[in-house]
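Order emerges. One example.
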Amino acid sequence: MKHIVVLGGGAGGLELVTRLGHSLGKRKQAKITLIDRSQTHIWKPLLHEVATGSIDINTDGINYRAHSAKHYYDFQLGTAIDVDPNQKCVRLASMEDDKGREVLPVREVSYDILVMAVGSVSNDFGTPGVAEHCYFLDSHRQAERFQQALLTQFLRIHQMGGDQQLNISIVGGGATGVELSAELFHVADLLKAYGMPEMSSKKVKVELVEAGPRILPALPDRIANNAKKELEKLGVHVHEGTRVTEARREGLVTADEEVISADLMIWAAGVKAPEFIQNIEGLEITRNNQILVKGTLQSTEFDDMYVIGDCCACKQENGSFVPPRAQSAHQMASLVHENILASLKGESLKEYEYKDYGSLVNLSRYSTVGSLMGNLMKGSMFVEGRLARFVYVSLYRLHLIAIHGWFKAMIILAAQRIGKVVKPKLKLH
């Protein structure tokens, strides 16, 4: 029996392993294994809401082990430290308990087919002080760590009273930085209802720092310009064309030697694939550690290794690479599922073609802006307000449907709706 290992349970990895479980695992035609360093899945575009406490991972996350029991695959908890494509095995780091005692030694998982879906992490470009003084939002653990620090700072501002302000600096004007900026103001206003009458959005000062000429560089100008206007209405100070050269305890230092004071600093600038990828012998990778693939999404060097999501470097006909977005990960997962089934039957494999259905940026409850693309319109259609918000929420619903099926996804959405009535709107612990 073939052993198919999916390394990484992000948007693409979890959708793929769910499909493989039902098409092959259920029929005992292959053994399917998902490996991830976390016990819980959360849709990555929602991490900024975990970071502000708008979402509680304990109730809104998906436990891999529970999910695997119902979708015909195995789950292994572990952090990949190496892959040997010649011996066809994944090497996992040892596991320790909270007292530093080894629970599991370094171990290997063999495979017949491997799917690399390890996503991406923030790229600090070696900027001094970033690792020591900035928070990252690459995982739900990091997001929860920031949420605890944020709540502590809110309590400090509330207790001190007066004209005290919480200064927050965000480096990176991509979707994460922009959406987090707006969400911070929303959360500050919500705290009034939870024993902090002194708190409001006026107590928060947010500096959004982007090294490029404008925020949201991967999106059309109209979306970026509208998002900037909305942020400035909220009170966000948007710094474009501003490169950060150092992070200090008291704030960020720019290339012009200006110091942007901050109580909290978040680094959301640039992405790269995990470091261990550059040590895998024989792989072709980019300078950001992404794995180069053929049109079939197989590694250029190893046909038994597929790559999907943010760690995939797939070149398009125009010479550009497929952008690291949730929609591309979803499309890649669908194609790799088809190609794995075809390879097992000895059939020819399909080539991947990225279809851009548009982009949306959600500015908390204040606004949503974006563009939609499809067969019914030529080019793109600019959308904002309620329509854009509806489409944005629908993307998450489609993800839930892909990993749970229609019936259970609808039950989960209904439960979340009910939960909003009985639970606090913020995680307060």
The mean pLDDT is 90. The first helix runs from residue 11 to 25. The radius of gyration is 22 Å. The chain has eleven helices and 26 strands.
